[in-house]
């Protein structure tokens, strides 16, 4: 049975003896009550029949402010905003297949651009502002940005615009070519699987 | 609709004044030729069009570019320029080069530079430096050594007087053979001069009088032809004598 009651943080959802705390809920240890920690709809999920603990799980989900959040290890799509001598800043746009609902910033450091010869990396020959890159989240980083890495074959620039304004075509893992002018520009290109 | 200019060979436009939008070359009529484009020109699929107003210049065998004079400097790799130290950080000095962004001068980019003998520049020090990296959107990177790592006259400039000129004038002062105004001044006066391609010129001499004469002569020669420059310098020196 699914109840769809709107709850806010701090509201009592039930008792720990009867329910398990799922997403968006937590158990207060001093009085063994389950409180909500997010805003959303309260849902009760029945327990799997073969588990030892037969309590249903209560969770708080479904509010439109809950977009996906980058976690360490998740693959994200980001747009490069600034390229500097040893780092590049990017705006995270999607986590996995879903687009995010709020601003997340990522940083790609010089040593995380590729796996080989990491001290000879030239950031300008790997990314340009405006490129879309596929990267993996290394860690939550510092207060300002997540740390991202493109150090794998399938990570790197997936889409870039040439200086003439056309979408470039990848020709190797380091080069992309403009279809209008034929000029070749250097990027760290992602190896996209062709099905 | 305006009539398009005749697209003949590019030679018809060389040494003429061009404005943005002029198409100077149609690539579809040429086969198997390599053309090198410099500043101010851009390739639009099959045609080469002008981006900056100025004179179209070319050099054998196949280089074309637009020359114009302005006061704003756009950093370019391997330019030698005069910068003013504005700040110092852990790894770099911040240097103002009259461009769109402050440039970084790495603390180790000096001959024999190690972590133990980092130079200290006061705010306002004039530096003669070389541009190492100049990408769009990134701060330019400078160096006080030449490509082989030697000091080669780069570094801080002491005493003397620095004044600003347009980019075109500083290019003319650095042209070879020696530009007429410098040659005429050099015959009568002795002075030391450093010209930055970003529109800054530094002059030093034994007496302030010489420095002022040289600076004024250079600033006057902005739009003069070679013979006019020589006449101007002669008049200046005569009226001072």
UniProtKB/TrEMBL annotation, chain A:
GO biological process: RNA processing
CDD domains: S1_CSL4
Annotated keywords: Cytoplasm, Exosome
Chief localization: nucleus
Molecular function per GO: RNA binding
Domain Exosome complex component CSL4 C-terminal: 99-140
Domain Exosome complex component N-terminal: 6-44
Stored Gene3D superfamilies: 2.40.50.100, Nucleic acid-binding proteins
Short name of any one Pfam family annotated for the protein: EXOSC1
InterPro entries in UniProt: Csl4, EXOSC1_C, Exosome_cplx_N_dom, NA-bd_OB-fold
Gene Ontology terms: cellular component: cytoplasm; nuclear exosome (RNase complex); nucleolus
Compartmental location: Nucleus, Nucleolus
Entry protein name: Exosome complex component CSL4
TrEMBL record, chain B:
Main location: cytoplasm
UniProt superkingdom: Eukaryota
Cellular compartment(s): Cytoplasm; Nucleus, Nucleolus
CDD domains found in the cross-reference section: KH-I_Rrp40 (cd22526), S1_Rrp40 (cd05790)
Single GO cellular component term: nuclear exosome (RNase complex)
Alphabetized Pfam families for the sequence: KH_6, Rrp40_N, RRP40_S1
InterPro entries: Exosome_RNA_bind1/RRP40/RRP4, KH_dom_type_1, KH_dom_type_1_sf, NA-bd_OB-fold, RRP40_KH-I, Rrp40_N_euk, Rrp40_S1
Keyword vocabulary terms for this entry: Cytoplasm, Exosome, Nucleus, RNA-binding, rRNA processing
Listed GO biological process terms: CUT catabolic process; exonucleolytic trimming to generate mature 3'-end of 5.8S rRNA from tricistronic rRNA transcript (SSU-rRNA, 5.8S rRNA, LSU-rRNA); nuclear polyadenylation-dependent rRNA catabolic process; poly(A)-dependent snoRNA 3'-end processing; TRAMP-dependent tRNA surveillance pathway; U4 snRNA 3'-end processing
Occurrences of domain Exosome complex exonuclease Rrp40 N-terminal (ranges): 35-72
K Homology domain location: 160-208
GO MF annotation list: RNA binding
Similarity section: Belongs to the RRP40 family.
UniProt protein name: Ribosomal RNA-processing protein 40
Biological classification of the source: Eukaryota, Viridiplantae, Streptophyta, Embryophyta, Tracheophyta
